[in-house]
Amino acid sequence: MFTEERYNIILQELKQKGIVSVTDLVNILDASESTVRRDLNSLDSEGLLKKIHGGAILIGESTSKHDYQVNVRQTLNSEEKKLIAKYAAGLIKENDVIYLDAGTTTELLIDFIEAKNITVVTNGISHAKKLLEKGIKTFILGGELKAVTEAIVGSSAVDDLKKFNFSKAFLGTNGVSNKNGYTTPDMNEAMVKAEAMKRSSESFVLADQSKLEEVSFITFGAITDSTLITIKINGNNNSYDTNVIGVVKND
């Protein structure tokens, strides 16, 4: 396939979906990963798309403003997400009662849980399955199943949450900023996140660097309502005083 043909296909995919991953483009174009990355670099330098870790988005778009299919989100910023997930899992202690939010980073957290005697409540379908496979006592919320994020959301899920009290909650987010707090595009998901945060003695929001200083539609918590676990690499950011994996609390 000629270079220009690949460019056209990439741009058409972006126009339809708003975001594309390198993995998907390798399959669609029947090209090597190095060829796809080179194409994305070229299109980025020409101002036709914006490269992000693991893929690309339309110019003027932000990953914080939309919910994308789980299989797409799993390919983005994957190494950062693993570091964040491992750090977060280390905070879980024996006898904790945990709320685990749906999301790709929170799902990765399950792989690193070492505590055995814990109870976990989740609104993530895939999360529940992985937790059971690890022999962890698991409850899943009832409510509307959102196809894009594979999360159980809405007022029924919120009502279910009111039965529980958590020692710790681990939440995902689409955007985080000092001014607007923790944000997500969907009201039904925001309701669940906010209630889980409220019912937890400690809550932690897991966010890779692509979420920092991004703002989505609905705020589900102020920056001081939860502890942010993030990683910021080779950059200065006045809002988040860290350059390594760690916990940042903005008081």
Q: Which tags fit this structure?
A:
alpha/beta; disordered C terminus; Arc Repressor Mutant, subunit A; DNA binding; Rossmann fold; 251 residues; NagB/RpiA_transferase-like; seven-stranded mixed sheet; three-stranded antiparallel sheet; HTH_ArsR_DNA-bd_dom
Strand order of the largest sheet: 6-5-4-9-12-14-15
Largest sheet: 7 strands, mixed
Structural class per helix/strand content? alpha/beta
Q: Can you tell me the residue ranges where pLDDT is under 50 for at least 5 consecutive residues?
A: 234-245, 247-251
Task: Please tell me about this protein's structure.
The structure is a single chain. The chain is of the alpha/beta class and 251 residues long. It has 2 domains: 3-61, Winged helix-like DNA-binding domain superfamily/Winged helix DNA-binding domain (Arc Repressor Mutant, subunit A, Orthogonal Bundle), CATH 1.10.10; 78-248, Rossmann fold (3-Layer(aba) Sandwich), CATH 3.40.50.1360. It has 9 helices and 15 strands. Strands 6-5-4-9-12-14-15 form a 7-stranded mixed β-sheet, with helices on both faces. Strands 1-3-2 form a 3-stranded antiparallel β-sheet. It has a 3-stranded antiparallel β-sheet with strand order 10-11-13. Helix 7 links the parallel strand 5 (119-122) and strand 6 (137-140). Helix 2 (22-29) crosses helix 3, helix 5 (78-89) packs across helix 6 (104-111) and helix 8 (155-161) runs parallel beside helix 9. The longest helix is centred in the first third of the chain and has 15 residues, at 3-17.
